[in-house]
Amino acid sequence: MQPLFMRGPSVTLRVIILVGLSVALMIADHRWNHLESMREAIESYLIYPLRYVVNLPVAFVHWSSDSFLSHQELFDENQSLKDQQLRAQVSLQKLSILEKENERLRRMLSAQPKVGERVLIAELLSIDMDPYKQQVVLNKGEQHEVYLGQPVIDAWGVMGQVVHMGGFSSTAMLITDPSHAIPVQVNRNGLRSTVFGNGQPDRLELRYIPHNADIEIGDLIITSGLGGRFPPNYPVGRIIEIERPAGETFANVIAQPVAHIDRSREVLLVWHNPPQNEQNEKAETGEKTVEAIVGE
Amino acid sequence: MNNCYRIVSFSIVIALMLAMLPLPDWAQAFRPDWVAMVLIYWVMALPQQVGVTFAWVSGLLLDVTLGSILGQHAIGLVLVSFLVLLQYKRIRVFSLFQQSIVVFILLIFKQIIVLWVSGIVGQEAETWSYFLPSLIGAMIWPWVFTLLRNIRRQNTRTSQM
Fold first, then answer.
1. How many domains does chain B have?
2. Is A34 a member of any domain?
3. How far is B146 from chain A (nearest CA, A)?
4. 0.80 exceeded by pTM
5. How many CB atoms are closer than 10 A to CB B91?
6. Interchain CB contact of A14 with B (< 8 Å)
7. Considering only CA atoms, which of A170, A192, A171 is closest in space to residue A180?
8. Considering the domain boundaries, does residue B23 fall inside one?
9. Is B130 on the interface with A (CB under 8 A)?
10. Which residues of B touch A22 (CB under 8 A)?
11. pLDDT reported for residue A2
């Protein structure tokens, strides 16, 4: 039986209340990020199981292609991995010496020695998000001590940072998202800038670079660590386009991300502890001294 | 009564899973708004049971699923289901083709609300292909409608809905 009249508040009133509620939610979420815990609860208890199920077929394909490899294929892969390992080991030897030397020099300049960062391997879930936003879902969440704003890198460079968290999964915004920015410097000469995404998976914008700045096509862009969010010295991109339009204050500089933004399946979550203020100042002065010495 | 909510919730869950199903890059722009379509059907078929509150909750879930601002899709779905509630008697007697046109208008309406919010936040999409999902949605509406009607009728037979 259908009731002749609807009970409770009228539909119009309910619509007004719900629209008001939605607007309040949007403001709270966008302006103050107050609703992270609410989003986290919904994500962990309601949405994550769905994501898990949707990801299952893809995970199964990966698992089966791994487990039904022939002996020969495994053998070949093992061989090539051993080769790679050997090569990596050789360059690592040099690196460890350089690292020691760097540490010694830094100590002489009474700067903060850099410590190794803790990392965790995460896998991307095969989940589509809003196609007009550059986001990915990772299979590690609060259970694995992931935190908001945590840097995400892959084997080649910086990918993005964690923006939402669930218990067992998290959402990362890629550096190519239009609302993402990351402080960087040019590896060759230390020129500082900020890299903005522009929504395309293979283009990044460097803004506020004056016309006469020393920047060339092919320059490697690395994180400067200035914002305190990303650890310094990770590669971000390579300059592919420079335009210096007359009459404008800044040059249009376009870079291509070095991370395999739309191909990587495995990524690394980095635990980065930004140095305290005092030490930060010391490090700053230290770096300045180095620059001064180099300049002379 | 309980059974009815179970079926409706289940179909919304399936729609949410379709919304996050991985598609190749070129196909992502064509993905119809499954949640909105399923919701339009249920509000039209069972306006006494499925209303704006249900739409709002589904919208919040969709927001978390897509990683958009909380409330963005919720507000769109609430307004769409309100329009359906006002006109459901008329829409029900339309032919499938006429219904598709109405669904197209409703889906476009929802997308404009979502786009409007994105614009305020500063992440608007700038291509006309943004509205493709509504077109695709209207084109597959006859099948969605028939499928959901069959599911509803089967359940009416076994229990009182």
1. 1
2. no
3. 23
4. no
5. 18
6. yes
7. A171
8. yes
9. yes
10. 56, 59, 71-72, 74-75, 78
11. 53
Would the CB atoms of A51 and B20 count as touching at under 8 Å? yes
Q: For residues B108 and B134, is the Cβ–Cβ distance under 8 A?
A: yes
Domain assignment present for A17: no
Domain for residue B81, yes or no? Answer: yes
On whether residue B160 sits in a domain, the answer given is: no
> Taking CB atoms and an 8 Å cutoff, what residues of chain B touch A171?
67
In a domain, A22, yes or no: no
Bridge partners (DSSP) listed for residue A271: A118
Residues in chain B: 161
The domain in which residue A145 lies consists of: 119-284
Query: For A23, which residue in chain B has the nearest alpha carbon?
Result: B71
β-bridge partners, B16: none
Q: Is residue A245 a part of any domain in this protein?
A: yes
Is B89 within 8 Å of chain A by CB? no
Q: Is A128 on the interface with B (CB under 8 A)?
A: yes
Residue B161, pLDDT above cutoff 60:
no
Residue of A nearest to B23 (CA): A128
Whether B88 has its CB under 8 Å from any CB of chain A: the answer is no
Secondary structure (DSSP) of A172-233 = EEETTSTT-EEEEEETTT--EEEEEE-S-TT-EEEES-BTT----TTPEEEE--TTSSSPTT
ipTM of the complex, rounded to two decimals = 0.86
> Total structural domains in chain A?
1
Q: For residue A226, how many C-alpha atoms fall within 13 Å in the half-sphere facing its CB?
A: 15
Instruction: Give the Cα separation of A245 and B30 in Å (integer).
Output: 37
> Which of A37, A128, A173 should be substituted to probe chain B, the one whose Cβ sees the most B Cβ atoms within 10 Å?
A128
| Per-residue pLDDT reduced to its tens digit, A25-52 | 998 888 877 778 888 888 888 888 888 8
CATH at B90: 1.10.1760
Average pLDDT, chain A: 81
Query: Residue B148 falls within a domain, yes or no?
Result: yes
Q: Name which of B20, B52, B118 is nearest A50 (Cβ-Cβ).
A: B20
Distances (CA, A) of B149 to B7, B98, B102: 12, 17, 18
Domain residue limits at B69: 3-154
The CATH number of the domain holding residue A192 is: 2.40.10.340
Find, in chain B, the residue whose alpha carbon is nearest to that of A201: B25
